[in-house]
Amino acid sequence: MKIRLSRRSRIIAIIILAAIICCLLISTWLQTTKEEQSPKLPTVEGQMEITILNSEGKEEKIYLEQFLIGVVASEMPASFEPEALRAQAIAARTYVLNYTPPYGTPQHGDAVVCSDSTCCQAYSSDQQLRDNWGDDYDKNIAKITAAVADTCGMVLTYQEQLALTPYCSTCGGLTEAAADCWGNDVAYLQSVPCFWDDDAPRYDGILEVSTAQAAEALNVDEADLSKMAVTALSDSGRTKQLVIDKKNYTGNEIRQLLGLNSTAFTWLLNKDQMVFFTRGYGHGVGLCQYGANGMAKAGYTAEQILNWYYNGTTLQKLY
After folding, report:
1. Which of 88, 91, 103, 319 has the fewest Cβ atoms nearer than 10 Å?
2. Residue 215, Cβ neighbours under 10 Å: how many?
3. What is the pLDDT of residues 283-318, one digit of tens each?
4. 25/27 Cα distance (integer angstroms)
5. Considering the entire predicted model, what is its pTM?
6. Which of these, 36, 319, 318, lies nearest to 163 by C-alpha position?
7. CA–CA dist 262, 59 (Å, integer)
8. Which residues of 161-199 are buried (b: 16+ CB within 10 A; e: fewer)?
């Protein structure tokens, strides 16, 4: 049976078809234009060899992906969930590439980074890992290697540039904004709540120090410690500025001088003793490692974990 359309129906059908074709053409044109206008990161082929400063302070050439195995193994417990380890691998890869030509300038002469965690990233050689892990070496190295291999070439970007990817052990329930920690505002390094790190071993900390030791470390008179007061807090509740009898300090200075776990601290002064109560461990900016593990346990993927702590970034494969 043939179906005959009226002249009016045919005209309507032709108009609808033309509109669909126009929409498809416009969509293709917009996508092409966007791709042409977006700056692209240079890519590298195959394995990239880098130079690092090893634990002995000597320059060592090593393939990037092999280096990352030693970094992830040193920066995060091998007992952590696979998705947390994958997130760590991507953050660590992005971090080191920021200092690797053609993406950035090396930190230490020809060496792109060192293996000192207080400066760059912690790193252990294969032999050091064998010594540290003992009988657990085979199991642990297989798990860490899988996390690096599964994410090979993957980095975080922001507006088609490598993102800055700092990370810390334990944020204490709320990460710190880069601007409050280091003075430079970064769109994707803002303070975000973290609901997953409260089982971290150093979520809470206590440090007792004599007033004599504190006064010496802070270069003030012992009697002036009673005048110590916080003058500015960050949005995450960490100490930004502190004064001791007209002498100003940043929270980071106090943390370093007294060896505190973080800048999220309060204290009690009791005669010749000071007791400091801390929350979290590390600077608190970016990825919270124990938080990432908690998210992984809750079913989040590495990409979701990274997007939470580096909100607004994009996962991209360079090689």
Report:
1. 319
2. 18
3. 999 999 999 999 999 999 999 999 999 999 999 999
4. 5
5. 0.85
6. 318
7. 32
8. ebbbbbbbbbbbbbbbbbbbbeeeebebbbbbebebbee
Question: Measured in whole angstroms, how far is the alpha carbon of residue 319 from the centre of its chain?
Answer: 21
User: For residue 311, which amino acid is it?
Assistant: N
Residue among 4, 313, 299 nearest 161 (CA):
313
CA 43/CA 148 separation, integer angstroms? 19
Q: What does the mean pLDDT of the chain come to?
A: 90
For the chain, percent of residues with pLDDT exceeding 90: 83
How many CA atoms lie within 13 Å of 209's alpha carbon, on the beta-carbon side?
19
Q: pLDDT, tens digit, for every residue of 101-127? A: 999 999 999 999 999 998 999 999 999
- Give, as one character, the DSSP assignment of residue 164: P
β-sheet with 239-244: strand ranges across: 228-233, 239-244, 247-250
Give the Cα separation of 30 and 10 in Å (integer). 30
Reported as a single tens digit per residue, the pLDDT across 34-43 is 444 434 666 6
- Residue 253 and residue 184 in contact, taking contact as beta carbons nearer than 8 Å: no
Confidence band (pLDDT; 50, 70, 90) for 47?
A: confident
List, in sequence order, every residue forming a beta bridge with 156; answer none if it has no partner. Answer: 315
Alpha-helix runs per DSSP H in the chain: 7-37, 64-75, 82-97, 126-133, 137-150, 178-182, 211-218, 251-258, 289-297, 302-309
- 72, with CB counted inside 10 A (0-12, 13-18, 19+), is buried
Tokens 């078809």 map to which residue? 17
Strand 287-288 to strand 228-233: parallel, antiparallel, or no bridges (unpaired)? Answer: unpaired
